[in-house]
Amino acid sequence: MIKIPFVLGVGVGYVLGARAGRDRYEQIARLAQRTKDSPTVAHAADAVASRGEDVFKAAKGKVAQKAPDWVPGSRPDPAGAASVRAG
């Protein structure tokens, strides 16, 4: 008995929400596009990316110092290392 009013309520809510939802979605999409195209946001994104690269390089250097065997290319390969690994 309760199922019929519940299903009708869900259906009406879906229809009304879909109509209002599309307009709201378009509004949010326009705002997101304007934000993405903003020179201020682009400058901030570049700064964050640059800082991220610096942090990554510093972390990689610290790991290479602490555990040189784990980081490829951090320690020169001895001449006989290839034959030792293969054998």
Descriptive notes:
It contains three helices and no strands. The chain is mainly alpha-helical. The protein folds into two domains: 1-37; 39-69. It starts with a helix and ends with a helix.
Main attributes of the structure:
single chain, 87 residues, mainly alpha, 3 helices, elongated, disordered C terminus
Short summary:
By secondary structure, this protein is an all-alpha fold.
Write the layout of secondary structure elements.
Layout lengths: L2 H35 L1 H28 L14 H6 L1
Quick one: biggest sheet? none
Into which percent range does the helicity of residues fall? over 70%
Specify the structural class.
Answer: mainly alpha
Number of helices: 3
Number of DSSP-assigned strands: 0
Backbone CA Rg: 29 Å
> Mean pLDDT score, rounded?
76
Distance between the termini: 77 Å
When the domains are counted, the total is 2
Shape: elongated
Oligomer: single chain
Q: Give helix and strand order, one letter per element, not per position.
A: HHH
Strand content: under 5%
User: In terms of per-residue confidence, which ranges show pLDDT below 50 for 5 or more consecutive residues?
Assistant: 83-87
